[in-house]
Amino acid sequence: AQKVTQAQTEISVVEKEDVTLDCVYETRDTTYYLFWYKQPPSGELVFLIRRNSFDEQNEISGRYSWNFQKSTSSFNFTITASQVVDSAVYFCALSEEDMRFGAGTRLTVKP
Amino acid sequence: GAGVSQSPRYKVTKRGQDVALRCDPISGHVSLYWYRQALGQGPEFLTYFNYEAQQDKSGLPNDRFSAERPEGSISTLTIQRTEQRDSAMYRCASSPSTDVGSGANVLTFGAGSRLTVL
Questions:
Q1: For residue range A50-74, what is the model confidence (pLDDT) as tens digits?
Q2: Contact call for A47 and B111, based on CB within 8 A
Q3: Closest partner residue to B56 among A44, A45, A98, by Cβ?
Q4: What secondary structure letter does DSSP report for A72?
């Protein structure tokens, strides 16, 4: 079965610092999809990005960037120049036949 | 509907009672997932459906939990003889395709049903 590990339980940074959230996954499939979701204090789950296993191109969207490396089975998420509004729990997820989430990383950005 | 709708939003019940949680997915979405999220934890997979067929129920904790989606739209998650350890947020999500992740097919989550078992 697939597995997603987010080793960092909590991270605290000061505003404007860069921060990287780690995600390591395990799968036996060659075709799969990786995701990041954000859960702000209000509780909803907000989709951020999806990447398929055949596309190792890194992606940048504003202050967010994602680094997908199949060789190390990692899909890390970096926020540059962090802001207080980035404070949330971030979940990495893996989809083969079904979709499984990691335990999440709680990011606190202090002013 | 415009989004995934779950009801009730909050449910408080006494231990031993049965509860039914309802999920109304986005219109036309064929895949429907149920997750449970305890405080401070990630969403824990319970089960999912493609159309009316339950594809994988390996995540259901025990036989007190069951789910159905008889007409391939609305789904109900039922917990019988509730226990305090069942207290959690129960989240439903849907996707327009059975191939979650390909194309534009990402899971859209509902606001959840918070269950408290006293």
A1: 888 888 888 888 999 999 999 999 9
A2: no
A3: A98
A4: G
